[in-house]
Design a protein that fits this description.
single chain, mainly alpha, 2 domains
Length: 210
């Protein structure tokens, strides 16, 4: 990858304090690939780094080159603002299941883990959305109950007021049988309950299924 920062990192790694044998072969490689041989190139330092690493690999330093590549991968991971390295241990059965899922979907295990996490996140968000929707619907039901109850109470209070005015008394006393009074009262409260039940049932029918 032709990246100025990575190129700088590779040269800095090569110039670190390695053992004498490694330092000598690196010095040879640096002399072999001099900047003069790269005159006219717009990315001389990048090409020089590639050639030095190739020289080391071809001259018995493949293990050192392997360590360099591993360190470079770690540097890339640490430098990535979006992705960060993660290390954890899974039970053997879980690891086997993860591998099976990854192969089935033709993805890497890392991609599969990301998909599983995103799916869980989306599922939790869906549950939250449903809970909010249900809470809003319940609030609407309670609001309708209150509204219809108040409408019926207002209607009955109006009828009672008209009756009181027609009698010409502020506190008329009922002198008939209590059984009849209870029956009439029950009729009035039943009217309130029926109005509420009808309003709630109508609202439920009009709501979309969740």
């Amino acid at each position: 990858k032709d990246d100025g920062e990575e190129c700088y990192w590779v040269h800095r790694y090569l110039n670190k304090n390695h053992d004498r044998t490694i330092k000598n072969i690196i010095h040879e490689a640096q002399n072999y690939v001099s900047l003069d041989s790269l005159k006219g190139s717009t990315d001389g330092q990048y090409i020089r780094a590639i050639k030095i690493v190739s020289y080391l690999d071809e001259n018995g330093q493949s293990k050192f080159v392997g360590r360099l590549k591993t360190a470079l991968r770690q540097y890339r991971l640490r430098s990535n603002p979006v992705k960060k390295p993660c290390s954890f241990i899974l039970p053997s059965s879980t690891k086997k299941h993860l591998s099976t899922i990854a192969k089935k979907h033709k993805k890497t295990e890392t991609e599969t883990i990301i998909d599983l996490i995103n799916d869980a996140k989306n599922f939790n968000q869906s549950i939250l959305d449903i809970q909010v929707k249900i809470a809003n619907q319940n609030k609407q039901v309670h609001d309708i109950k209150y509204q219809k109850a108040m409408e019926e109470i207002n209607r009955l209070a109006t009828l009672l007021s008209e009756w009181e005015l027609s009698m010409g008394k502020q506190d008329p006393k009922y002198e008939g049988e209590q059984e009849i009074l209870r029956a009439e009262t029950k009729k009035k409260t039943k009217a309130i309950k029926d109005a509420i039940s009808y309003a709630v049932g109508r609202h439920a029918l009009m709501q979309p299924r969740i």
